[in-house]
Amino acid sequence: MNDLLRRDLKHIWHPCSQMKDYADGILPLIAIDRGEGAYLIDVDGKRYLDAISSWWVNLLGHNNPRIVRAVREQAATLEQVIFAGFTHMPAITLAERIVSIAPKGLSKVFFADDGSSAVEVAIKMAFHAEFNRGHNRPLVVSLQNSYHGETLGALAAGDVDIYKRTYAPLLFRTVQAKSPALCGDAEAIEDMRRILEANARQVCAVIVEPLVQCAGNMAMYDPGYLKALRLLCDEFDIYLIADEIAVGFGRTGSMFACDQAGIAPDLMTLSKGLTGGFLPLSLTLATEDIYAAFYDDYLKDRSFLHSHSYTGNAIACAAANATIEYLMEGEILRGNRAKIEALKNGLAKIARISGVKGARQCGMIAAFDVTGFEKEARVGACIAREALKNGIVLRPLGATVYFMPPFVITADEIERLCDTTARIVEKL
Ligand SMILES: Cc1ncc(COP(=O)(O)O)c(C=O)c1O
Known about the structure:
7-stranded mixed β-sheet, binds pyridoxal-5'-phosphate, Aspartate Aminotransferase, domain 1, alpha/beta, globular, 428 residues, 2 domains, Aspartate Aminotransferase, domain 2, 16 helices
C-alpha cells in the first residue's frame, strides 16, 4: 500500500463502504489526481473510463472547460452570501432557466445542497402545504424498491433494505406501493389505488423515481405508469413528487424523465447532474398552488422555515448555469442518440453471455444482472476490481452491473466499455 493510501485510511471514513475492504485489498482504494472528459487519472498516471459518472453526477465530462470557466469567474466575484434576505444573479438566472425547461406548472424553486435534502424539502412542503390548509396528512407513499437518499426523512421514504433496515426504529411511517418495474404497470397502479383509497385522508404525497429506480438495481418501467399515477393523484387530491435527482438532465433520453410521460408533478427534486458534477447543489421545484399555501403575513405562522447554511451557493449556481446552458443548446442530447444506440449494441452482446439476465436500457443507462453466484461470492466487488485493472470504473449494485457514463463518452469508448465488461463477465 502506498503512502497516500495509508494516510487516507488513517483518518478518512469513506461513504457506502466497509472500510476493512480497503485495508484488506478486497476493494482497492484509488487515489485520483485529475479528471479529463470521460476519464479519471490516478496519481500514477493510469487512466480510468468513468462508466458511472462518479455516482451519476458528471454529465459533461470531468474538468469541462466551460464549467471550469464559470466556476472560476464566479469564485472571483461572489462565492457565497446568506440566501435569506439576499439574492444574486447566478441564482436568479438558474431559477429562470430551470423553470423554462421543467415540466409545465413548476414555477417556484427552492435551493438546498444535496439530493437527500431536496427530498426532505419536498416531503416537508407537501405535508406543510396541507397543514396550512387545515389538513393533517402525515403519510407519504413511495414505491417498493425505491431510493430517495439517506438522511432520515429521505431514508424513511425509500425502500432499499440494506440502507434502511438498521435505522427502522428512527424513521417516520411511510407506505410502499408495488413497483411497476417489478410487477408491471397494471398491478402497480391497482396497488397504489388500494393504498390511496385506504389512506386517502392521511396521505400528503406520493413520491416516485420516474422511469428508473436507480439505486434499486436500475429497475426500469414505462412512462405509461407515470401517466396513470398522475391521474390517480389528481383523483385523490394528493401531491405527486417526481424525484429526478438521478434521471434528470437528459439521462433517460429526454431532458426530464417525466417528459416521456407528458406529465407534470406537483413537486420535483433535482441534484446530481445539475452542476455537471462540479459542486453540491439541489433544487426542489413546486407549483404556484403549493407556494400559495405558505404565502401570508409572517405572524400567521405559515412560512416555510427550512434552511441550510449553503443554500443558493453562488459558485454552485454558476456551475449549474453553465451545465444547463450547455444542455439547452441541444447538441449534447442530440449527440446522445448515437451513444444510446452504441450502448444498445454493446448490451446486446453482453446479454448473450450465459448467466447474464435482465439486460435493460433507458437512454444513457444500461444494466444487466449476473446470476448463479452466492451472496457471499460478492460478484459485484469482483467485477469492480477486474474493471479497475482494465481501466474502467464500475460500481455494481450487488449482482447488477450498470453503465451510466458521462455524455462526453464516444461511441467507440462505449464499445470498448461493453467489450471489456463482457470479457470480465465471461471469465467469472
Ligand atoms: C433518486 C435519488 N434520490 C435521492 C438521492 C440522494 O441524493 P444525495 O446522495 O445527493 O443525497 C439519490 C442518490 O443516489 C437518488 O438516486
